[in-house]
Design brief:
With 322 residues, this protein is mostly helical. It contains 15 helices and 2 strands. The radius of gyration is 29 Å and the shape is elongated. It starts with a helix and ends in an 18-residue tail after the last helix. GO terms for molecular function: GTPase activator activity.
């Protein structure tokens, strides 16, 4: 074979190689990207019959989970479908759209950008009672269950304080408490004092009227996060202590309650906590609250003498007698 033939053969092999690479690259793109076609846009436009639009959204829901959309497609889909969640639409139509948004957020999470703020505004402003579960699911998806609050750091705390009673009435308090645990762990620096005050107040109310073990334990888990990740405001310290004094009497919560109190003793509020419990024990208005007094005695004893005489607080035991 001549040198010219060898060169041609090599050239043909290179052409074949790059043709394969180009083809496989196109296949890879087709497999991972989902374009919003002109036909799909027409199906989703407000002028299209609503039944057809809902069917298109249902079909599209799985695609937005599996494939990546092109740039600005999330915003486009929002503008095409936002009229479906207004109050004059039927419950079924709103649920189809809200369910689609939940899947859109999950599937396109890394590409949401400023649409994060828009979806949060939907969660806040959409007030149809039948849709509250979808709003909560959207919030869980949008925040990665409380871990990411980018673009609405300043708004989420006040919103949750306002919303928690509605969530409780809807029987959805457990998933919201799980979200709040992560919210405190991952975003404590962004949470304002009013949020901490509001949440502790509501947890106090929960522990007074709810018997469900899971709910109480999750409420205590929220409290458990506060000494380690946030600064407990002085105005809720007494309420915080009262919750722990009452829950420590129940076997299901005793260890958790003591663990939280032990952590509280180890903070700068440790001595203030002990003084607060001493004041509770000396206050005649609490004399009929046996659970509170018994819990205060337990925590005070454990703080001063601990297990096997190992004290947690560095102060003389006589302080409780003054």
């Amino acid at each position: 074979m001549s040198s010219k033939d060898k060169d041609n053969n090599t050239f043909n092999k290179l052409k074949q190689f790059f043709r394969i690479t180009k083809t496989s690259g196109a296949t890879h793109r087709d497999r991972n990207y989902f374009p919003i076609s002109a036909e799909l846009e027409r199906e989703l436009q407000p002028e299209t019959p609503v039944g057809q639009r809902c069917k298109a959204l249902k079909d599209l829901s799985e695609d937005v989970i599996k494939y990546r959309l092109e740039v600005d497609s999330v915003q486009l889909l929002w503008h095409l479908t936002k009229d479906l969640i207004v109050g004059n639409k039927s419950t079924e139509q709103r649920h189809v759209a809200l369910n689609f948004y939940c899947k859109l957020i999950k599937g396109q999470y890394d590409n949401l950008k400023l649409m994060r703020a828009q979806f949060f505004r939907v969660i806040v402003s959409h007030e149809e009672p039948e849709d509250i579960a979808y709003r909560l699911e959207m919030l869980k998806s949008l925040t990665e269950n409380g871990k990411n609050i980018q673009y609405f750091e300043k708004e989420i705390g006040s919103f949750l304080v306002q919303w928690i009673s509605q969530i409780d009435q809807a029987g959805l308090i457990v998933p919201l408490l799980e979200l709040i645990v992560n919210l405190v762990k991952y975003n404590a620096a962004s949470l304002e004092k009013n949020f901490l005050v509001g949440i502790v107040n509501y947890i106090f109310d929960l522990t007074c009227r709810v018997e469900d073990t899971q709910t109480i334990l999750l409420s205590l888990t929220v409290l458990d996060c506060l000494p380690g990740y946030a600064i407990i405001p002085n105005e809720i310290l007494t309420l915080f202590i009262v919750i722990l004094c009452r829950t420590v009497n129940r076997e299901a919560y005793c260890q958790t309650s003591w663990k939280i109190m032990k952590n509280l003793f180890g903070t700068a509020l440790g001595h203030a906590t002990l003084l607060t419990m001493c004041n509770i024990l000396n206050d005649r208005t609490f004399y009929r609250d046996e659970a509170l007094l018994r819990g205060a005695i337990f925590h005070t004893n454990m703080g001063l003498w601990g297990v096997s005489g190992s004290a947690i607080l560095n102060c003389p035991p006589s302080i409780v007698l003054t």
